[in-house]
Design brief:
The chain has 142 residues and is α+β, with helices and mostly antiparallel strands. A 5-stranded mixed sheet has the order 2-1-3-4-5. Strand 3 and strand 4 form a beta hairpin. It starts with 6 loop residues before the first helix and ends in a 9-residue tail after the last helix.
Amino acid sequence: MADVSNPALAEAYQEVRSDQNDTQWVVYGYEGNAITVQAKGTGDLDELKTHLQDDQAQYAFLRVTSGDSESKRAKFVFISWCGEGVGALKRAKMSVHKASVKTVVKDFGIELHATSQSDLDASELAQKVKKASGADYSGNTN
């Protein structure tokens, strides 16, 4: 199990979930066996991606606005990232450590695993969020 006891982890998670500030995402990474907050930001997926490193195993939590003209709402995405340069042992530990991270990052509608920047496409993510969101009042008659 990874150490997720640092209160800053839950604080960053709550910042993303809160409607009271502009924080849109957080990236978590490792310091030894402890999970730490590596970065937070107010931008979109593209900004978040600049903090995902090829030689690191990381986790991210992202706020996405979903809906249509009738109903806009926040949806949340959990991303596990294992860069292509991460060694086999670290890759193997990720599934156990991801469970630890999920004790902090609890509420999300979409979960993704990515190993390269191309795995995280904003338009594909928007479609996944829309599909997972339920009601769609965009005027489609099909």
